[in-house]
Amino acid sequence: MKTPIDTEEKNINYYSDAIKSSADKNVSDFLRWFNNNDNVNSVINSGYYDFYTSILKPTIYEKTKNNSKQLTGLEIGCGGGRILNAACKYFAKAIGVDIHDSFDALNNFLTSENENFELGKIKDNKIPTKDKSVDFVYSFIVFQHILKIKVFEDYVSEIKRMLKPDGITIIYFGRPRFFSKKVFYNKTLNNITRIFDKIFYEILYLNIFKNGFIENYNAEVNHVNLTVSIFKAKKIFKKAGLKIKEKGISKNKNIFGTQYYFIAEHSR
Q1: Which candidate, 241, 245, 250, places its Cα nearest to that of 156?
Q2: Of 133, 110, 148, nearest in space to 11 by CA
């Protein structure tokens, strides 16, 4: 077993080094590090698919469809830019922020198709964007790689700070799973493992004995570092001043999605 990654600084360096190693090779390897598709075109297409199916949920689309070209969207954990590339086509301005250092590779990819983007590096859990300056904040397959619950809390507070009073956000985070890590073909067994996950693992075990979350210090890069219960996440969003409008699982037709999501707005 590798040396435990037990601090957020170590976790950031762990990810940054792995990303840099791919960026130093070529654009294809850089993009494929974040999304294991066959080539650059398939990575770009997957970005469009995830943006329009996972990010632009009906609730968000209805709120933004009439004036999207006057809005600013911000992605926490923009990675290689595949989803940010799609966001550039929808919003007047798309901002991407991340903890890694491979911004030259990211910029080179995005400038091949877009001019209306801005990039920034997250430092000390702070996002380099002005207060009340963003209409929409989103994050997909990122919060599950955060190591510490404190960072989760800080990012949610930053979202509240950045959002305009009528802004909206969708954030995905690691869903607690134990019994359903193996997907059965039998529908009845699937439903049983789902119930066991929800009742015995998440509600009873996590909320009572683990304060609603687990930090995994032994996760390999690109595996789940942090899982958070619905109850715990609700408390964090409420404390930050965000009101949850909708919640769900990352795969609508598959109860074994690895992430929960919240859609939220200002509560005050």
Answers
A1: 241
A2: 148
Task: Tell me the pairing of strands 134-139 and 242-249.
Answer: unpaired
pLDDT tens digit sequence for 235-257: 999 999 999 999 999 975 555 67
Helix axes 230-240 and 149-162, enclosed angle (nearest 10)? 40
CB 30 within 8 A of CB 23: yes
Which pLDDT score is estimated for 40?
A: 86
The beta strands (E) that lie in 48-189 are given as: 72-76, 93-98, 117-121, 134-139, 163-174
Angle made by CA atoms 24, 14, 117, in degrees to the nearest 5: 60
Q: What structural domains and CATH numbers belong to the chain? A: 8-176+215-266 (3.40.50.150)
Dihedral sign for Cα 214, 15, 46, 68, please: positive
pTM of the model: 0.94
Say which amino acid occupies 209. F
